[in-house]
Amino acid sequence: MKTRKLTMGQAVVQFLQQQFVERDGNETQFFAGMFGIFGHGNVAGIGQALHQYADSFRFYQTRNEQSMVHTAAAFAKMNNRLRTLACTTSIGPGATNMLTGAAGATINRLPVLLLPGDIFSTRLVAPVLQQLESPGSQDISVNDCFKPISRYWDRINRPEQLITAMPEAMRVLTSPAETGTVTLALPQDVQAEAYDYPVELFQKRVYPIPRQRADVNALKRAAAWIRESKRPLIIAGGGVIYSEATAQLARFAEQTGMPVGETFAGKGSLHYNHPQNLGAIGATGTPGANITAREADLVIALGTRLSDFTTASKTAFQNPDVRFIGINVAEFDAFKHAALPLVADARVTLEELAVAVGNYRVDAGYAARIENYRDEWEEEVERLYHLGHGPLPSQSEVIGVVNEVSRPEDVMVCAAGSLPGDLHKLWRARNPKQFHLEYGYSCMGYEIAGGLGIKMADPGRDVYVMVGDGSYLMLAQEIITSIQEGYKLIVVLVNNDGHSSIGGLSRATGAQGFATRFRYREEESGQLQGEFLPVALAANAASLGANVIEAKTLLQLKAALHEAREASHTTVVKIDVDYDEQVPRYESWWDVPIAQVSEVDSARAAYEEYEVDKRKERYFL
After folding, report:
1. CA torsion through residues 62, 68, 72, 78, sign
2. What single-letter DSSP state applies at residue 317?
3. pLDDT of 232-256, one tens digit each?
4. How far is CA 521 from CA 263, 515, 532, in A?
5. Is-above-0.85 flag for pTM?
6. Is 9 helix (H, G, I), strand (E, B) or coil?
7. Is 550 helix (H, G, I), strand (E, B) or coil?
8. Do the strands 31-36 and 59-61 form a parallel or antiparallel pair, or are they unpaired?
9. How does 290-325 read in b/e, with b if 16+ C-beta sit within 10 Å?
10. What are the tens digits of pLDDT across the range 10-44?
11. CA 261 to CA 276: how far, in whole Å?
């Protein structure tokens, strides 16, 4: 057997360069490079290897360990999970800073490879700097925190363990059903140890991404259920986009006349003006989608994990005879809501169902209701886009301007606060990749880092990062990285001096918006209800190297966005909006438990209302 003498760190980098995936005859290199921040736990191992192979494997400098995982996840999402980036850190805080990003990637089923440094495997010099000591075991480090949020986890205590660990890591990363965060903890001494690795480990490997077909009998049964249904509904999730099934969904919906509601991850599955598209569904859904869901006798859950926002905390489906068909590559998701499971790829399943249902089509009355719901919603969107609100504009009006200025091929990215719900309802998606929401984890701080990953995945698109002041203040540093690498972002910084989303939720739950505005502490009362804090967001963005434009009106915002499009580097457009003006909730509910007892009248009143709403929650057995 031929061998190559390499350090473990060198072997990792050499292996990553040779990994490819193939789907539908198209072959792609899986790893586009590696993000990293160096410390004593990785600089002499992985860091040395990256320096040695810098001409053949791209290294990206970053400013924050959490954000680089977000960037890698966004890059993977934009590439339909067919490409990703690896992330390396030192031990200790460098590693644990990645935990939030790791959880987000796993929850959103996006492949990222994390390579945190670890304590010495020899244990001779323990405790090393940043080592967590345990009196109950010497075989523990902070990297054990990654175990519950990783789809695969391993600690490479000997250099030859890499030979079996790396293929297992790739098995998970390239699996449509099992993908998520993969963590390989790399002890800093082992990273630098040499071993005679078999040369076969570094030969090109191509992982076919299968299009799994459903069980034939289950497919026939699903087709029979569809033919029997009077009020069917399709819920389009992220799996539609990942499997590149948007054209098949459009044809199937046109063939059958079935209406479609879209989840956060699935928005863009249909063009916003497709005649079967009822828009957003669930807790942040449109009236038409939610009324249709409430009355549906058959729900086809297509590539969705049926989160509580999609199901309105299991209150969305009220027909006592409703049945579910679950179409998903993940068996775990296909069985949800006691569904008839079709464990299969969305694209091929839609093609086969289109044949199996024959000439089935919803009746004229149901079709007319769908059309009416669509017409009424378009009128409501226009109203919210043009409220004429003042003196500060509303958030819905800002969304309207960004939607108008952006082109169909451009991308809007967001993650947390009140913006995601408003965008889910109001954004007019004209391209399957135009609406990029991280809402599985709804992670504040994802926005700018995610925008960078999107731009890296497809530099030809303009990327509009919509971020509130709360999220911006948590994680804005990757503006620097976008400028360093020449990936221009257009950041729309929406300021309302507080956490508007949670403020609204606080009021709804009887807590009266407590501690959700950014104010000084008042000396007399001792509460955070003094003057607003003088945070200079525009100056902060400028200090990071961004081009900055401040807009005070919607006309100025529109002009600023056009200017940003022509700018040479990342531009931040800052605008103040009304904190209290929010988009209504339509025909839906979300379960946020409220205090059963309280001395506050508003909390008692909120609980009485909560008791009534909660009675609509259902088990599906």
Report:
1. negative
2. -
3. 999 999 999 999 999 999 999 999 9
4. 40, 10, 10
5. yes
6. helix
7. strand
8. parallel
9. bbbbbbbbbbbbbbbbbbebbbbbebbbeeeebbbb
10. 999 999 999 999 999 999 999 999 999 999 999 99
11. 9
